[in-house]
Design goal:
Blueprint lengths: L11 H17 L7 E4 L6 E3 L4 H4 L6 H4 L10 H14 L12 E3 L1 H8 L5 E5 L3 H10 L7 E3 L4 H7 L7 E5 L8 H15 L4 E8 L2 H12 L6 E7 L12 E7 L5 H17 L5 E8 L10
Parallel strand pairs: 1-4, 1-6, 4-5, 6-7
Antiparallel strand pairs: 2-3, 7-9, 8-9, 8-10
Helix pairs in contact: 1-5, 1-10, 4-5, 7-8
């Protein structure tokens, strides 16, 4: 496993992924009952954009465009607040003020910042080098359980949770041929153990055949209500394997979450994508049981 997320931290895919995470947590936190969060691919936890991020500069097309905006939509408020607080905590040094941010929080940091006292957060990272950084990131923090192991195994060992509520974030690197199969199999296993959990799977948009196949594989599981938040920042490029957008498949979306994303996704495409080829939509892959299937 050679993938290192630091090269892509803060890019437009992270903006969608982490905004989705923040809004899922906000929806789940609307109820007083505690819940468990499982992050299957934690990475380093946090990133110095002057390190690996300076190589690709992908963050300039993501969080770098978002932070200077004076009035972002309400669905981005929690996410932006966490990003600013994390950057301030580690010191915004050696970077021009116009560029706005030097340190960027990964999904474990965002989840940790939005966690309530009675909620639980368990984060896994299989890559030994990344796991070292992840453990250092949260050294001494008893509010998070960091594990150097295969994150898919957490779905077997931790579901169903005693809280009877759970959010599972699956963010694989998609660098191996069987990554999609493994991710879908993990969701299948999770649903069999805990059918009412919220499962959020990130995916890259490079090839529409891949996206369609992934959607069909999830639909074939016959899951509960499932949506796909699909944001394409530019037109499909003839260059092979070029990342042009990303998406989030969400199984058991909380109440009103889909409505929130139907407003946010087009806004991201228009304001982060910033070109005529940017598009966004929230697709219903599987309607709510008993609900009328959408037309078209």
């Amino acid at each position: 496993m050679n993938y290192q997320h630091g090269f892509h931290a803060g890019g437009f895919s992270d903006v969608l992924k982490h905004a989705t995470l923040a809004n899922l947590m906000a929806a789940l936190s609307a109820k007083d009952k505690p819940y468990l969060i499982i992050d299957t691919h934690g990475g380093r936890g946090g990133y110095d954009l002057g390190d690996q991020g300076s190589v690709t500069m992908e963050w300039k097309m993501g969080i770098g465009r978002l932070l200077p905006m004076r009035q972002p939509p309400p669905a981005l408020v929690d996410y932006i607040r966490v990003v600013r607080a994390y950057d301030k905590k580690f010191g915004n040094f050696n970077i021009k003020p116009a560029e706005g941010v030097r340190h960027y929080p990964g999904s474990p940091r965002i989840a940790r910042a939005l966690l309530r006292p009675d909620d639980r957060l368990v984060v896994a990272e299989l890559n030994p080098r990344e796991a070292i950084f992840l453990k250092r990131e949260f050294a001494g923090d008893k509010g998070i359980d960091v594990r150097e192991e295969d994150g898919y195994g957490l779905l077997k060992s931790m579901l169903p949770p005693p809280e009877r509520r759970a959010l599972v974030l699956i963010d694989p690197p998609y660098e191996s041929r069987d990554e999609t199969e493994n991710a879908v199999a993990a969701i299948d296993h999770g649903l069999r153990r805990f059918a009412t959990g919220v499962y959020a799977l990130w995916y890259p948009i490079k090839d529409m055949k891949f996206v369609q196949a992934l959607h069909e594989a999830v639909i074939a599981l016959d899951p509960p209500e499932t949506i796909a938040v699909h944001v394409q920042m530019m037109r499909m490029n003839p260059m092979p394997r070029m990342l042009v957008g990303s998406g989030m498949i969400v199984i058991n979306p909380p109440w009103k979450f889909a409505d929130t994303m139907r407003e946010l996704a087009p806004w991201l495409a228009a304001n982060i994508g910033g070109n005529r080829g940017a598009t966004a939509e929230v697709k219903t892959l599987v309607p709510e049981k008993g609900a009328r299937p959408p037309e078209g």
